[in-house]
Amino acid sequence: MKVFIVYAHPEPKSFNGAMKDRALLAFERAGHEVKISDLYEMKFKCTIDGDDFPARANPVQLQIPFEQEEAYHSGSTAADILAEQQKLIWADLILFQFPLWLYSQPAILKGWMERVFSSGFAHEVSARSDARRWFEKGGLRGRRALLSFTCAGAATAYEPTGRHGDINRILWPIHNALRYAGLDILPPFIAYSVLRGGDAARLEILDRFEAAMKNIEIAAPLGFHGLADYDDAHQLREGVVPMTAGQWRGSL
What is the pLDDT along the chain (252 residues), one digit of tens a residue? Predict the structure, then answer.
């Protein structure tokens, strides 16, 4: 198996750093090939702007999806983006390792996703083709993705009635963005209470994480509604029972 680890933490001695190292060890012991993008070490540019498109198709107005598609189809994608896209194409599994900050991924990782999962490459819904490439038809279909991240808070705080709310609802935008590119999404590995849990608890988390990575090839992906489950108004069809944190019937 070919594994691409996208790592986002500025401190190599952090617990996220320890998890990245433990994952690498587990994968290499199992005979898997591994590539790592350490986004902070790379000083990865995390903002989309006109510099991404030196040969603008529309010099009058910057329309990001249009310019991304034109760059992809013309072979003029920025070099740093192209390098990451080639790692995605190479990989069977993409592991994202990061801390959950303010209920989402660090800005550098969000920016990586915005630039690398570009229109034309990961998905495409323009008028260029009648066959839309999105969700299960996305550009990265056939590959799997896993979110592995740390939380300062306790697991109980991320339950549906907890202070922070249901972790599945918090993760929905990230998971759906990955699914939009065609990826199969594995259940996340979440390290709770990493700041206050103590050394013994942190070592136990690392051991559980290594065990999970050893068995990752047989892990079953999360369920997502297929495109056929939606009507022309992009609503779940009558009779389709919502299966994800992102859809429900009724009001809160």
Answer: 999 999 999 999 999 999 999 999 999 999 999 999 999 999 999 999 999 999 899 999 999 999 999 999 999 999 999 999 999 999 999 999 999 999 999 999 999 999 999 999 999 977 565 568 999 999 999 999 999 999 999 999 999 999 999 999 999 999 999 999 999 999 999 999 998 888 899 999 999 999 999 999 999 999 999 999 999 999 999 999 999 999 876 544
- The answer to whether residue 244 is domain-embedded is no
How many structural domains is the chain composed of? 1
| Full residue range of the structural domain in which residue 114 is found | 2-229
What CATH code is carried by the domain that includes residue 213?
3.40.50.360
In a domain, 16, yes or no: yes
| Signed CA dihedral, 171, 246, 218, 35: sign only | negative
The DSSP secondary-structure symbol of 144 reads E
Number of helices and strands in the chain (H, E): 7, 6
SS3 95: strand
